[in-house]
Write a structure and sequence with these properties.
The chain is α+β, with helices and mostly antiparallel strands and about 375 residues long. The chain has 12 helices and 4 strands, in the order ααβαααααββααααβα. It has a 4-stranded antiparallel β-sheet. α8 packs antiparallel against α11.
Length: about 375
């Protein structure tokens, strides 16, 4: 132990803990580390304004855009880091070949033959998606060994992101419209069926409106009753001073008898006979059919309004990708930050050297 402590002189500790790590890091950064260029873009997902719900259709379509949806931006961030998008980008741009081409850098290259899981993790480390909670913006930072490739990859990500946003927003709008249209079709079928029942009833009974017929029949019965009462009064008056065999009494008696038969016929027509013949039964059935038809018509109007509202609402809720800053073409390699990393390593090594010197000095003091 004493021999080891005596060998740990300040000069050797400086060489071991400061000079050697810094030298190795310098060799790596300036001889092996590959330049990594970063292309940056800023985007967000927007949708039509929801604050104009009471406006007309044209006003809704001309409304502005609403604040960015946090959920939509999070969905997009997850999609950018998804395996599906990675496969599309690899097929289009050859990501694996590009990241495997840099063979000197052992830490930031993609090793050949790795699984898709490792490739996905490597891709997520090279494509950063930062979400600003306050502004609702997504910042996409793409690393590449060539500036043109970094810009091309960033542009491809934005293009696929726009297709993704359009696809799922249009799918939601289409499903909403399909549901409303299905309800309208069913309401139209019910309305047509109700109309057909009304037409069939009118054709079968040869009546345009049994309710009106019943009302007319009731009015006629009331008139006949009034006329009969008047004629009977006149007949009693004549019989008070004329014989029953007189011409006036006989004529008036015949009129009374005719009115009484007509009144009984009208009453029988309304309330006597089979159910399909009785006027009151026909009127009741016709009112029921008309009630069903009016209800079906109201339901159809509501469904038609719902379809129009769904069309306007679906148009208003269509989402789009808004590019705040297009992918730039980097001029300087942002990574690796050679001087910064070397200086940081030098500070850490100096701290480690100081701690080690303190430990060695403490041990030597206790041994003495």
């Amino acid at each position: 132990m004493n021999k080891l402590l005596s060998a740990l002189t300040p000069a050797r500790l400086k060489l071991l803990l400061i000079a050697l790590p810094v030298l190795l890091a310098a060799v790596y950064y300036y001889a092996l580390a590959a330049d990594r260029y970063v292309s940056e873009s800023i985007v967000t997902v927007r949708q039509a304004n929801q604050n104009a719900a009471g406006a007309a259709g044209a006003a809704l379509l001309l409304a502005g855009i609403s604040p960015a949806s946090r959920e939509d931006n999070l969905y997009l961030r997850q999609y950018i880091h998804s395996l599906d998008l990675l496969k599309k980008l690899d097929a289009e741009l050859g990501l694996r070949a590009h990241y495997e081409a840099e063979t000197l850098d052992p830490f930031f290259r993609l090793w050949a033959g790795v699984s898709q899981e490792w490739f996905l993790e490597y891709y997520r480390a090279r494509v950063e998606v930062l979400f600003d909670e306050v502004a609702g913006l997504l910042t996409v930072r793409v690393q590449g060994f060539e500036p043109e490739f970094a810009q091309k990859l960033n542009a491809a990500i934005l293009r696929e992101s726009e297709a993704f946003v359009n696809a799922y927003s249009q799918r939601m709008a289409r499903e909403q419209m399909q549901f409303a249209q299905g309800e309208l079709d069913r309401a139209a079928e019910r309305l047509q069926a109700a109309k057909n029942e009304v037409l069939a009833f009118q054709t079968t009974h040869k009546l345009l409106d049994p309710t009106a017929e019943a009302q007319a029949s009731g009015a006629l019965v009331a008139e006949l009753q009034a006329a009969l009462a008047k004629q009977e009064t006149e007949l009693r008056a004549l019989r008070s001073y004329l014989n029953d065999d007189s011409f006036q009494v006989q004529a008036l008696r015949n009129q009374v008898e005719a009115l009484r038969k007509q009144l009984e016929a009208e009453r029988a027509r309304a309330t006597v006979g089979p159910r399909d013949v009785r006027l009151n039964e026909q009127a009741a059935r016709f009112q029921d059919l008309m009630l069903r038809a009016r209800f079906a018509e109201d339901a159809y109007k509501l469904a038609l309004t719902a379809v129009e509202n769904a069309r306007i609402d679906a148009t208003r809720k269509l989402k789009s990708l808004v590019v705040i800053e297009s992918p730039n073409l980097p001029e300087d390699a942002l990574y690796p930050r050679r001087l910064y990393n070397l200086f940081t390593l030098f500070i850490v090594c100096c701290l480690l050297y100081g701690i080690t010197r303190l430990i060695v000095a403490t041990i030597q003091e206790h041994q003495d």
